[in-house]
Design goal:
Elements (H helix, E strand, L loop, with lengths): L13 H11 L6 H13 L2 E3 L7 H12 L13 E4 L4 H8 L5 E6 L9 H13 L4 E5 L2 H5 L3 H15 L3 E5 L2 H4 L2 H14 L3 E3 L11 H18 L4 E5 L5 H14 L10 E4 L1 H16 L12
Parallel strand pairs: 1-2, 2-3, 3-4, 4-5, 5-6, 6-7, 7-8
C-alpha cells in the first residue's frame, strides 16, 4: 500500500515552465540535422486508428504504411507502432509480422475509462493474449480529480501486472487535469504504479499535447531517473500536425532529458496526421520541391 504522502509533489512554477518551453521552441536546426530529425520523428510515431468505423482492411492499410511510410525511399524508417482497439489486435499483429513495428492496444474503457476494474483488466488480458506488445490505458480522471489518488495508483499497478511482458503507457488526459500541479501529481502516481511510458492524451480531448505539458512530463521522468536509475518514456499525443512541431519536441527532449531519450524506446509521437507532413518535408529537402498531399496515402 502506497501512502498518500507519496503522491505529494512540489508546486509547478507555471511562468518558468512556459518561458522555458517558449525558449526551446526558438532553437534553430541546421539543414542536415533537420533531415535526420525528421527521420527520427517517423521512427518514433505510433500510427493510430481508433474510430467506431474501423475495419480489418483499414487496419491492414495502416500497418502497411507503418512498415513502409515512403516505399520509394530506403532511408526512411518504419514507424514505432500501430495502435488499435482490442478486437483488431490480431489483424494488426498479422499485418506487421516480420517487421519491427509494435502493436499497441488501447484498454481500460478507452477513452473515458468509465467501467469497473474487472472489465478493464479483462480487456488488457485479452489484448495481450491477442498479441499486443504495448497497452495504452487511461486513468480514472474522476477519481483523480476527487482526490482518490490511491485508487488511481492501485488501478495502474493492477493493469501493469495484467500487461505481463507488454509495455504500459499511462494516458493522463492532461486537458482534463486543468493545472500543471495536477499533471505533475498524475505523473508521480503513474510512475509509482509502474508505468513504462507517460502519455499526454487520448486525442479525443482538447487541449491535448502542449509544449509546456510535455516539457513538464519530460522533467518528471528525468528527475525520476536521477532518483531511481529507472528510465521511463514520454508519449506526446494529440494536436501535433506539422514537422516543425515534431522537431521542436525533439529539441525539447534532447535539452531536457539528453540524447538517451531520443529513441522510440523512450519517446513517441501519437499523431497519425503528422506523418504525411514529415514525409512531404523530407521530399522537399531531397528535391527542393514540395510534393502534393495527394502524393501520399491518407491512412
Amino acid at each position: 500500500m502506497v501512502s498518500q504522502s507519496a503522491f505529494r509533489v512540489p508546486p509547478v512554477d507555471a511562468v518558468a515552465l512556459e518561458t522555458r518551453a517558449q525558449d526551446l521552441a526558438t532553437r534553430s536546426i541546421k539543414q542536415a540535422a533537420k533531415a535526420e530529425g525528421l527521420r527520427m520523428a517517423i521512427a518514433m510515431m505510433d500510427l493510430t486508428t481508433l474510430e467506431g468505423m474501423d475495419t480489418p482492411g483499414k487496419v491492414r492499410q495502416l500497418c502497411q504504411k507503418a512498415r513502409r511510410p515512403l516505399p520509394s525511399r530506403s532511408d526512411v524508417p518504419g514507424c514505432a507502432a500501430v495502435c488499435v482497439y482490442p478486437d483488431l489486435v490480431e489483424v494488426a499483429v498479422d499485418a506487421v509480422a516480420g517487421s519491427a513495428v509494435q502493436v499497441a492496444s488501447v484498454a481500460t474503457g478507452f477513452p473515458a475509462g468509465r467501467t469497473d476494474r474487472r472489465t478493464k483488466l479483462r480487456e488488457v488480458e485479452l489484448a495481450v493474449k491477442a498479441g499486443a506488445t504495448e497497452i495504452d490505458m487511461v486513468i480514472d480522471r474522476g477519481a483523480f480529480l476527487s482526490g482518490r489518488h490511491a485508487l488511481v495508483h492501485d488501478e495502474i499497478a493492477a493493469v501493469k501486472q495484467a500487461c505481463g511482458d507488454a509495455h504500459l503507457k499511462v494516458i493522463l488526459e492532461t486537458g482534463e487535469l486543468k493545472t500543471y500541479d495536477n499533471v505533475r501529481r498524475a505523473c508521480q502516481i503513474a510512475l509509482l504504479g509502474g508505468a513504462d511510458f507517460l502519455k499526454t492524451s487520448t486525442g479525443k480531448v482538447s487541449p491535448a499535447s502542449t509544449p509546456p505539458v510535455v516539457l513538464l512530463m519530460l522533467e518528471v521522468v528525468r528527475d525520476w531517473f536521477l532518483d531511481t536509475g529507472h528510465m521511463v518514456g514520454v508519449k506526446a499525443a494529440g494536436g501535433i500536425r506539422t514537422s516543425k512541431d515534431a522537431l521542436r519536441y525533439l529539441v525539447m527532449v534532447a535539452e531536457t532529458c539528453g540524447d538517451a531519450w531520443l529513441s522510440p524506446q523512450w519517446f513517441r509521437f501519437g499523431a497519425s496526421s503528422l506523418l504525411n507532413d514529415v514525409l512531404m518535408q523530407l521530399e522537399r529537402l531531397r528535391t527542393g520541391r514540395y510534393q502534393r498531399p495527394t502524393d501520399f496515402s491518407s491512412d
